[in-house]
Write a structure and sequence with these properties.
The protein is built from 3 helices and 13 strands, in the order βββββββββββαββαα. The chain is mainly β. The strands form 3 sheets. Strands 2, 3, 6, 7, 8, 9, 12 and 13 form an 8-stranded antiparallel β-sheet that branches.
Length: about 375
């Protein structure tokens, strides 16, 4: 339904807006357990033992669905006061150009009974994006100290020694922000409008579907009440905008299923390589780890072990009329850290031999095409993972 297609609806003029409904659910839980034991059997000896265990977990689910409308924007600067912004239907001036026959020169956007930006006829589903984090970590630590105190008849005050051990084990699972198209004005005859019936089967030329149901039931009008606390007029005026109307995080599956149906209505879900060319949920991407929504490069386990030991001697005494005190000690520490992960590179599509054979007049072959056919073939095999 671009203005040159079977459904000439997309307007020629107007700024495109993103009407985004986005929800996020975040859970952070940290538990900390500690134990301390002290023992002083006499005035000279002292012992102390400490242990600690910490575990932490983070769960994040974020999901957004973009809708879109077209509008003109008139901006009035008011000196030191807030500017006034007014959105209106696109066309010549602030009103659409009336016409009887809709075509590429006079799209149907905002015409007739749909001459307002609250109409589902004038909004389409544009894109979606989800993000998931499922991370956890634990830390265990122990320490043991022993101290011996000397009497007053020596320069030595006390000697103290101890050992430390701590291990931190964590796994970060942090997905990309998985943006993908649902429908657009630039392909497949135009986007999936909110007034279009959706059955998951693309129609040739962008004509609205004839089976299924439209998405008006899931769309919600938002009029932005108390905009700027009433200090400036509402840019949308009386034309509230349509947004996805459900909590996308709480009802993630329902939102995902709806977004998939819109994408399937617009064009085939997968491209020639068998992977998604429209938005799909994180767990449906190619090459995710089985049973998870994460790619290998989105999972990063880290283990760290710290060990330490020390001994310190304290002294005090008189040097003439002066009272002196101090200490001397030695400390040894070691840290071992192990981390796993993957580095991913985007797929590279090298030119085919047929494409290399076509060199525009006055141009030179690209550096890749200047290689021998055997080297080019080897590079393609490497790029697609065959070797």
């Amino acid at each position: 339904s671009d203005q040159q297609g079977a459904d000439p609806r997309s307007p020629i003029d107007g700024l495109q807006s993103n009407n985004i409904r986005r929800d996020e659910s975040i859970t952070n839980i940290t538990s900390d357990y500690g134990f301390n034991f002290k023992w002083t059997p006499n005035d000279q000896w002292g012992f102390q033992f400490d242990a600690q265990h910490v575990d932490s977990k983070v769960d994040v689910l974020s999901m957004g669905i973009w809708a879109s409308t077209f509008q003109n924007a008139a901006i009035t600067l008011n000196g030191n006061d807030l500017p006034t912004v007014l959105f209106s239907l696109p066309g010549n001036g602030l009103t659409p150009t009336p016409c009887v026959t809709f075509d590429g020169n006079c799209p149907s956007y905002g015409q007739g009974v749909n001459n307002n930006l609250s109409s589902p006829y004038n909004s389409f589903w544009r894109s979606a994006m989800d993000h998931i984090e499922q991370s956890e970590g634990t830390e265990d630590a122990v320490k043991f100290d022993v101290e011996y105190k000397f009497g007053d008849d020596t320069w030595f005050d006390s000697v103290k020694a101890g050992v430390r051990w701590a291990e931190r084990d964590q796994t970060t699972r942090f997905s990309t922000y998985n943006w993908g198209v649902l429908s657009e004005i630039w392909g497949e005859g135009g986007p999936v409008w909110m007034s279009d019936r959706i059955d998951g089967v693309p129609n040739a030329g962008g004509l609205p579907g004839t089976t299924g149901t439209d998405s008006t039931a899931i769309a919600m009008l938002n009029g932005f009440p108390n905009f700027m606390r009433g200090q400036t007029p509402l840019p949308t005026g009386t034309d509230s905008r349509l947004f996805y109307g459900d909590n996308t995080a709480v009802n993630y599956k329902a939102a995902s299923d709806f977004a998939l149906s819109v994408g399937d209505e617009w064009r085939a879900r997968n491209g020639a390589n068998g992977c998604a060319q429209n938005w799909v949920p994180l767990a449906m991407r190619c090459n995710v780890v089985a049973g998870s929504p994460f790619l290998p490069q989105e999972i990063n386990p880290v283990n760290e072990v710290n060990k330490a030991a020390y001994v310190v001697a304290r002294f005090k005494g008189d040097m003439g009329a002066a009272r002196v005190s101090g200490n001397i000690g030695l400390r040894y520490t070691t840290t071992t850290r192990e981390a796993d992960g993957f580095q991913a590179f985007p797929n590279i599509n090298f030119a085919t031999d047929a494409e290399c054979a076509i060199v525009p007049p006055g141009e030179q072959p690209t550096p890749f095409c200047a290689l021998t056919p055997a080297v080019r073939a080897s590079a393609r095999l490497w790029a697609n993972g065959a070797v």
